[in-house]
Amino acid sequence: MEIKNFQEIIDKVKTLPTKKRMVIAAAGEEHTLQAALHARKEGVVTPVLVGDKKEIDRILNELGETVPEEDIYDVADVKEAAEKAVQLVREGKGDFLMKGFLDTAVILKAVVNKEHGLGKGGVMSHFTMFEIPNYHKILVAVDGGMVTYPTLEQKKAIIENTVGVLRSYGYENPKVGVLSCVEKVNPKMPETVEADTLAKMNAEGQITGCTIAGPISYDCAMSAEVAKTKKYENPVAGNADILVAPNIHAGNIMGKMLTVTCGAKMAGFIVGAKCPIVLTSRGSSAEEKYLSIVMSAAAVK
Question: Which residues contact 270 (CB under 8 A, 6 or more apart)?
């Protein structure tokens, strides 16, 4: 199975027997509420709002919408709102979490709290999907938002996190390209050495459920024609499902190039915790937040 576009997942989520409950921390922000209410209208989620109730009510009134009183928790302080939102998920009153109008560091601090958080003790990473106009299917690029300079073991964990989500969507064997600027191992380029090691770990059964190629350049991963010209033969070439960036800068730049310059649609959330965490930028559009909600709802186990 391969996902061609976001609409495929939207259609799938709408058919689920029960709607997922999504808890929003610091929910008093217009785009966030628009996205959540759009997802509710589409039958995807039931939003649970935590934040300054006066501000939430004001925005709901402007939007001409309502949310049941029992699904609104009046917590004006953003730190306390993050902690309350995490608590609700831990207590089973929500299926996944969404960041509203607060700093990422604030919500992540609540998430990683060892006593009251949602961590599982492993690596949490940023899962980002792109629907690109001139690519034949959805592309996942990681990690441009969470792990800054991943070690070899962290890259392994990022791959496992990402592959796990795609397999929950129905993928049987996602194709993973570990990126560098060249296709050959160069001891002076540690990114190529680690990419080669990850590919070998995959071949030896230490990383399962996917096919890994590395080192592989972006053009070979995305274009079968380029790979053929370069005589790069690999099942991932021209058909990648997942691209693993060498560090957060490369991943972040790649994502912004795809959206800003190439016109890609994007959805993203944090994986590796006890539930998906929608962690879009405060400047993200309502559409991006809506798509991130849908993709997260589809990933809830």
Answer: 111, 124, 125, 126, 127, 146, 276, 277, 278, 279
Is the domain defined by 125-261 classed in CATH 3.40.718.10? yes
Q: Which whole-number Å values give the CA distances from 78 to 9, 101, 262, 290, in the listed order? A: 32, 8, 35, 22
Cβ atoms of 127 and 269 within 8 Å: the answer is yes
Residue where the block lists tokens 């053009």 = 219
pLDDT tens readout for residues 3-37 = 999 999 999 898 888 899 999 999 999 989 999 99
* CATH code given to domain 6-119+273-299: 3.40.50.10950
- Delimit the domains of the chain by residue range: 6-119+273-299, 125-261
Run of H or E including 233: none
Instruction: Label residue 126 exposed, middle or buried (CB < 10 Å: 0-12, 13-18, 19+).
Output: buried
Select from 294, 288, 284 the least CA-distant residue to 96.
Answer: 294
Give yes or no for a contact between 110 and 117, defined as CB atoms under 8 angstroms apart. yes
Predicted confidence (pLDDT) per residue in 70-118, tens digit: 999 999 999 999 999 999 999 999 999 999 999 999 999 999 998 999 9
The strands making up 96-99's β-sheet, listed across from edge to edge, are 72-74, 45-51, 20-25, 96-99, 277-278, 265-271, 125-131, 139-142, 242-244, 175-179, 211-216
Angle (CA) 255-260-265 rounded to 5° is 70
Radius of gyration of the chain (CA): 20
Q: Which residue has the tokens 């039931």?
A: 46
Sign of CA dihedral 78, 96, 159, 144: negative
Concatenated DSSP letters of 48-98: EEEE-HHHHHHHHHHHT----GGGEEE--SHHHHHHHHHHHHHTTS-SEEE
To 10 degrees, what angle do helices 104-112 and 78-90 make?
40
Please check whether residue 293 is in contact with residue 266, taking contact to mean a CB–CB distance below 8 angstroms: no
Distance CA 278, CA 292 (A): 6
